[in-house]
Amino acid sequence: MYQLIYCSIARPGLYPADIKAILNTSRNFNWANDITGCLIYYNDEFIQILEGKKLTVKKMYEKIEQDDRHFSVIMMSEEEADERIFSNWSMA
Ligand SMILES: Cc1cc2nc3c(=O)[nH]c(=O)nc-3n(C[C@H](O)[C@H](O)[C@H](O)COP(=O)(O)O)c2cc1C
Fold it and tell me: Are the CB atoms for 78 and 4 separated by under 8 Å?
């Protein structure tokens, strides 16, 4: 199991509806690809924890990095982990 944590800054003018849209896409895709985690949005910044198979998580992160709904994406940690923290959440 692999766990990756990054932070980023939300694009100015992002609405709650935009965050909802990100969550909806995330939950569908993550559910189908055995990714779990959580997305925190506070003070126009994101912190996200992604958990799953290493290759799947890395590919997901590469895609997320390119998303223009946020910028200054900074990897905070990535490591092998024994178990998931968010095993019941496709994206909390
Ligand atoms: C802050 C943030 C977090 C995101 N988290 C996820 C995620 O966990 N899972 C996911 O599938 N997409 C997530 N996305 C959306 C992806 O960047 C991308 O738009 C989505 O996977 C659809 O990509 P596609 O249209 O190229 O298939 C996130 C986007 C942002 C801005």
Answer: yes
Q: What's the pLDDT tens digit per position in 39-68?
A: 999 999 999 999 999 999 999 999 999 999
Boundaries of domain holding 15 = 2-80
Q: Which atom of ligand 1 is nearest to the CA of 28?
A: 11
State whether the beta carbon of 67 lies less than 6 angstroms from ligand 1.
yes
- 48 Cβ below 6 A of ligand 1: yes
Whether 85 is in a domain gets the answer no
Residue 92 lies in a domain: no
Please check whether residue 89 lies inside any domain of the structure.
no
Extract the runs of DSSP E, i.e. beta strands, from the chain. Answer: 2-10, 36-42, 45-52, 70-80
Question: Per-residue pLDDT for 91 more than 90?
Answer: no
CA atoms of 1 and 17, how far apart (whole Å):
32
- The sign of the dihedral angle between the CA atoms of 52, 54, 60, 61 is positive
